[in-house]
Design brief:
Length: about 160
């Protein structure tokens, strides 16, 4: 009697590789979506914290004047996640001061408010951009992933929750 050798046939190995490939095709997009939703929730929390920091600054100094976005002694961080190293952040954060008409400050106009804008980085959204914004009144806007890099407009674009 001839002894049968043990092991897998080529056909069994090909079926196993195909199944693993199919599972990976389903898992990778789901995981990427999870990472984007997680980063978006992080930046929303960072924007709320930054708006709170701006209000604390105004409470201590009776003005938004002197507040900055950056690192070190800045009032708010210039990146999100806040603790991300430079170049590894998912969003760049910028601060704009507003006059009483709600437009950007020019010259020596009095500061009446602020807007904090978060723009996704290219290494995170692969060539697309999304923006989130909050202002001194607590109004928010969100512009979803798109190839064009125009910031969202409060009162025009949908709000984030």
């Amino acid at each position: 009697m001839k002894k049968q050798e043990t092991g897998f046939t080529l056909m069994e190995l090909m079926i196993a590789v195909a199944l693993v490939g199919i599972l990976a095709m389903m898992a990778v997009p789901a995981y990427s979506g999870y990472l984007q939703r997680s980063a978006r929730a992080n930046v929303q929390a960072d924007l709320m914290a930054a708006a709170g920091a701006m209000e604390r600054h105004k409470g201590q100094n009776f003005s938004y004047s002197g507040a900055t976005a950056g690192t070190g002694t800045a009032t708010i961080s210039s990146r999100s996640p806040v603790d991300a190293e430079a170049g590894l952040q998912k969003y760049d954060v910028s601060l704009t001061f507003l006059n009483s008409a709600g437009t950007s400050i020019t010259g020596t106009q009095a500061i009446a408010g602020f807007e904090i804008l978060a723009t996704s980085t290219d290494n995170f959204t692969r060539g697309q951009t999304e923006t989130l914004k909050i202002n001194h009144l607590g109004q928010k806007c969100y512009k979803a992933l798109a190839v064009t890099a125009t910031p969202c407009v409060i009162g025009t674009d949908p709000t984030w929750k």
